[in-house]
Amino acid sequence: MISVVIPHFNQPSQLAGCLASLVPQAAGGHEVEIIVVDNGSREMPVEVVARFPRVRLLHEALSGPGPARNAGIAAAAGDILAFIDADMVAAPGWLAAIAGRFRDPAAGILGGDVQILLRNPAAPTALECYEAEYSFRMEHYIARQGFTGTGNLAVRRAVLDDVGPFAGIGVAEDRDWGRRATAKGHRILWAPEMLALHPARESFAELARKWDRQTAHDFAFGVTGWRGRARWIAKMLAMPLSPLAGIPRILRSRRIPGGLRGRLKAFAVLARIRLYRARLMAGLAFAGNAGNMADRWRDDGGGA
């Protein structure tokens, strides 16, 4: 059995889209259960879940997608656990890809591809063009950094039991769990056919909140002593010029929509976000004002 676990926080319309993409696949000959775990929404998505057969709704009071996933794992019956975020859409064949890969007994962890769900493919927005290339870099994370995104992840229960639960809201739980898994000798397999689609953020402020969290986490857990602070400052000083080094990548990209205009849009957002990150890094380096930046998952709607 494949147990699909979906953490949810204040995204009922997106959850409906996610379930609409999954339920027909679950009826396609796979033994599947779908579990939605609400994480303190203003209103439980009872009506949304009721529209779809054989979908269970649970509640987890402890804040964060990690604890919500843990609650789903505890209630699940499957020996394979698949995770997808409420604001994602599973592409056709998502469940079949998971089932097919796990026919190989050596497969323990799968990291799927995540691409941008364009609102209007004929006129992609600047944020869509940017995120198409720079967000959800799952193949890179698996190959170079030893983790994958938990928003499109499948794993055997035996591996979960060995690695342990997902961390709480104060930690980048995808990196934390993935690196614990690789440290124990488990291999994360890149599964591009296991495709999920994620809408781009609608405003620069939403993208900025993501970097608030990630930058605060990187400073809190990665900067120790004067050498660590010196490396941080050097990176901060290089950040405003770094978009120039990204030009070849943007020109070669096969993921950015909209041709040359789309690439120009992607570069404009890249330059703006790198300047924003430099200001964040300066504040942390010289004032140490991490504050509550790491605790922004709720403010950002639970997205990646």
Fold and architecture overview:
- The protein is α/β, with parallel strands linked by helices and 304 residues long.
- It has two domains: 2-120 and 134-199, Alpha-Beta Complex (Spore Coat Polysaccharide Biosynthesis Protein SpsA, Chain A); 204-287, no CATH class.
- Helices cover 48% and strands 17% of the residues.
- The protein has 13 helices and eight strands.
- The protein has helices spanning 12-26, 46-50, 65-75, 94-101, 126-134, 138-145, 157-163, 173-183, 204-222, 225-238, 242-245, 247-252, 259-287; strands at 2-8, 32-38, 55-59, 80-84, 89-90, 109-117, 152-156, 188-199.
- An eight-stranded mixed beta sheet has the order 3-2-1-4-7-6-8-5, with helices on both faces.
- Strand 2, helix 2 and strand 3 (55-59) form a beta-alpha-beta unit.
- The chain is globular.
Question: Which helices and strands, and how do they pair?
Answer:
Layout: E1 2-8, H1 12-26, E2 32-38, H2 46-50, E3 55-59, H3 65-75, E4 80-84, E5 89-90, H4 94-101, E6 109-117, H5 126-134, H6 138-145, E7 152-156, H7 157-163, H8 173-183, E8 188-199, H9 204-222, H10 225-238, H11 242-245, H12 247-252, H13 259-287
Parallel strand pairs: 1-2, 1-4, 2-3, 6-8
Antiparallel strand pairs: 4-7, 5-8, 6-7
